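Hallway conversation turned thread

IA: we were arguing at lunch whether anyone had actually written out Glycosyltransferase family 4 protein end to end. Turns out nobody had. So, for the record, here is the sequence (356 residues) and right after it the structure tokens. Reply here if something looks off.
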Amino acid sequence: MKVCIVTYDEYINIPYISKYERILKQYKIEYDVILWDRRNILANDNKPKNYFVFNSVIRKSKISKVIPFYKWSRFTLNILKTINYDKIIVLTTLPAILIYKFLIKKYHDMFLLDIRDFTYENINIYKKRVDKLISKSALTFISSEGFKSWLNDSNKLYLTHNISNIEKEKQITQLKMNNSNLVIGFVGGIRYYKENCKIIDNFKNKSNIQMLYVGKTHAGIELENYCEKNNIYNVSFKPAYQNIEKPFIYEDIDFINSIYGSDNQIVKTALPNKLYDCILFKKPIIVSSNTYLSKIVNEYNLGFDVNLDKDNLYEKLLNYVEVFDDQLFLEGCNALKNKVLQEEKYAEEKFIEFIE
């Protein structure tokens, strides 16, 4: 048995790949990984022997991305046609679309599709091909029940979760109750410029609020420049991190910033990694109203939701702290964690069936 994991992303952006690698190693199954090094940071002499790395820098404009994506597909297909893999795991829909014909013709019921986000499913031909890929897959994992609002119903869909660092779970919350020096932390790939500017404006130079951004800043997200330009001094930034560093990063954070707006299917239906950080590290989470994430947060009493166009975020935060019930919060964290772990166990069993 030999398996190939196909992704068009960098390793740092796909922490959930470690789950697949762990199980493949546990069952002593040989595997390769196809990655895309988009910033030329992965030296060939440092990469594992079973990693095929496509090197091409991604520019900002959509037009400039066409040729690199085409070259990635040729690079990937060349490997898949040269090496006779028994099973293929494709991470997210876009790389699956780029090698669509190969998967449909050569790997019917022998590939696993892992869907983590809404991409271009609003385009009819793209949506039809995603549905076709699901029907031809052995199984398809989705990271949010909310995705079923834009995917066709299928008995091949199984829920999985982006939970990690379980062994570093905290048992208590230490939210400051005196409203002083509250730290609002955004941990992850830094995007959503418009929303984060509104958040920063809500907390601008408040003496009892510190804002922290930790992670890789995506192209065009010039939040540091925005703060400098507007003389905002209670915002700080830290660089990209390894996933194992998360528990230590959250030690200095009181609230998790998981506000992405609600103006498209990407943010309306996804469950971000920050939700799992919330329930593991026991940090209340702030999310956007009218999203599937806000439904979960309110159901389990994990924080509060906000509409940045209507609400005063600063006032909502202070009101939440004023009436914060740590027992209710901890009960919600544990209830959701237990549900997630049960669903993860079932997903792992389905994956083991697939590789066996």
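OS: looked through it. The domain at 2-160 is CATH 3.40.50.2000 (Rossmann fold).
IA: good, adding that to the notes. The first strand starts at residue 2 and ends at 6.
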